[in-house]
Amino acid sequence: MHMLYNSENFVVVQFDSTQGATAVREDVLLRGGYEIVDKFARKEIFIEGALAESFKQGVEALIETSPSEEEIDDYLERFSSLMQHPLILH
């Protein structure tokens, strides 16, 4: 687990889990994924597979432009409509 991003609005954590995984394609993230948390909406989503790979490519393209925190948050906000799980702290 690696915290990749933490702002006032969002947190992004990467989960790598290759133990016991059988890689079918090396260029696609088959295990693990990304958890995106919207702090104000108090909701989160865990993405994996093709969606996680698309997310990764989008972030890499964004990083090349030296984005501001606001630009990164705007990118992450695109995933807010997919967030259905309420954030529960334990």
Structure description:
With 90 residues, the protein is an alpha+beta fold. The chain has one domain (2-86). The chain has 2 helices and 5 strands; from the N terminus they run E-E-E-E-H-H-E. It has helices at 49-63, 69-77, and strands at residues 2-6, 10-15, 33-38, 43-47, 85-86. A 5-stranded antiparallel β-sheet has the order 1-2-3-4-5. The two termini are 17 Å apart. The model has no long low-confidence stretch (mean pLDDT 86).
Strand content bin: 25-35%
User: How many domains, in number, for the residues?
Assistant: 1
Order of helices and strands: EEEEHHE
Annotation field: number of helices: 2
C-alpha geometry: globular
Q: What distance lies between the first and last C-alpha atoms, to the nearest angstrom?
A: 17 Å
Low-confidence stretches: none
> What is the radius of gyration?
14 Å
Task: Summarize this structure briefly.
Helix content is 27%, strand content 27%. The chain has 90 residues and is an alpha+beta fold. The chain is globular, with a radius of gyration of 14 Å.
